[in-house]
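Protein fold
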Amino acid sequence: MSNTSRIVMKIVSGVFSLLVLVLVVVGLIRAGQWAYDFGYRVYTESPVESAPGTDKTVTVTSDMSAKEIGDILEEKGLIHDATLFVAQLKISSYSGEIKSWTYTLNTSMTARDMMQIMSAEEDTESE
């Protein structure tokens, strides 16, 4: 291999390494932005609609997971994102406290409001 070929190969190798490094850094920045946005939304997510909103009936059973409850709430248009709801529920004091019942929830409620209603004692639950 000639001296010129070695120089060209070193340049190509250096450019390729730099390209990989740039892609990794961009990927890390994007992942960080997504994580920050998700974390921010966990604590600040707004209701789907402003008051007075729309009432929706939701039935929760004892065998439902947090993800299944979130999926139903998202399907009914009560929350924006089921995955976000699961994170909110897991870090809240309502984790593991959701009761089986049929609830009337409103699109102007926050996820925390809904969790509070769904974890309340039976005499204060919505029907």
Remarks:
- The chain has four helices and two strands.
